[in-house]
Amino acid sequence: MLKGMTSQRLIALSLTGIAFLNFPLLALWDRDVHVLGWPLLPFGLFLVWGILIAALAWVMERQKTN
């Protein structure tokens, strides 16, 4: 049961990543604004990428402890 739930969570996480890193949502980040000296688009990409990696690590570590 746990292996199936982990697979479902990983698939959902992958689909979420594809959705957030796809063109229509990326167009929302394409502004002439700077955050901490970075343009908003690269900052947003790295932020989403980091969140996806952290969520992946959380899902995989949670699977090991159960």
Structural features, described:
- With 66 residues, the protein is mostly helical.
- The longest helix is centred in the C-terminal third of the chain and has 26 residues, at 40-65.
- The chain starts with a helix and ends with a helix.
- The mean pLDDT is 89.
- Helix content is 79%, strand content 6%.
- It has helices at residues 2-20, 23-29, 40-65, and strands spanning 34-35, 38-39.
- A hairpin with a 2-residue loop joins strand 1 (34-35) and strand 2.
- Helix 1 (2-20) packs antiparallel against helix 3 (40-65).
- The protein contains three helices and two strands, in the order H-H-E-E-H.
- Strands 1-2 form a two-stranded antiparallel ribbon.
- The protein has one domain.
Secondary-structure map with pairings?
Blueprint: H1 2-20, H2 23-29, E1 34-35, E2 38-39, H3 40-65
Antiparallel strand pairs: 1-2
Helix pairs in contact: 1-3
